[in-house]
Design a protein that fits this description.
The chain has helices at 2-25, 38-42, 114-149, 155-188; strands spanning 50-53, 57-59, 62-74, 76-84, 89-94, 101-102, 107-111, 190-192, 197-202, 209-210, 215-232, 244-249, 256-263, 273-280, 295-312, 316-319, 322-329, 332-337, 339-345, 351-357, 364-366, 379-382. The protein is an alpha+beta fold and 383 residues long.
Length: 383
Amino acid sequence: MKRGLVIAVGVIAIGVLAAGTWRAMKPRTVPAEPKANASAIAMPAASEAIELVASDLLVVSAVDLSRQVPVTGSLRAVQQTVVKARVAGELKSLDVREGQTVKQGQRIGQIDTLEHEWRVKEREAQLQASEAQVASAQRTQDNNRQLLEKNFISQAAFDASRFALDTASGNRDAARAQLTLARKTLNDAVLTAPISGVVAERFAQPGEKLSPDNRILSIINLASMEIEASVPASELGGVSIGQAVALKVEGIKELQKGSVVRIAPSTSAGTRSVPVYIRLQSPPVSNEQIRAGLFAQGQLDVERLGNVLAVPQGALRDQAGRTTIYLIKNNRIEEREVKLGLRGNLPDGRAVVQVVQGLNAGEQIVAANLGVLKSGAAVKVKP
């Protein structure tokens, strides 16, 4: 009986093992995913309007347009001079320094006059001697005339006395001229300002020995300033005397008004440009900001158009040889081809381009470069 029980238990164990092996080898069934809704994939998402700010838009209107040529240069005084020594001698004094204001005729220094004073005295003595000789020769001439009338002397003797008088008179005139020059030399030892202005630089110091034409100091009159600017020869036809120019001067906030006062008769060598001289219009003398050498720049109008349509450069798009612009019509983007004209500036200095075809006054455009916008897209403008 025990033997039969063991056999039965073994049969049951074998069956259980076989059932587990079959379940492990059987393939698993993966649950099917729910199918997507086909109608939901085919339906497009609702399109959103393009948002623009009001500053990106512009209502086109008629404006005055000008084409300008940039001009640059450094300010220089119309009146400036260098005071030089006119006589030789030691510089005894120099009463002004850089930055001081002087008036025309003002005494500004002194060269030693001792030698020149003695030369004047010498010339005065020579003149006195010459005048005495003239007086003596004149008396001799008068006496000889009376003697000739009485036939006491010959004609030759009378002519000799007349020649002596003429010689004495010539020597007197020469002495007088030399005295005049000596006095002028003495006066030249006193240094005076030839123009009114400001002392720019001193080249000599008291105690130095000067020769004629040695530089002593320079004076600049800041009341009248100008710049020399180069204008291309091709643009010279639009430049004329009296033409107004607005200049921005280095270090000065306010624009300075200027005008063309001279135009050079020939081009500069190697540049094919013509020097044009622009003068500031009566800058205030009290304005201490105006100084020679400051850099100035401005725009010179060479062509003007009135009552034209113009748009900013950023509003234009170039595509395959076509120039287009974006308009806002019925709250939607519209791309339109335009024809351009003059490129210039508005009176306030903004750069614009004239539109001669494809745009009407009163139409609203996208004035800024916002990239590619889809034609027909809805637009929402934010304040």
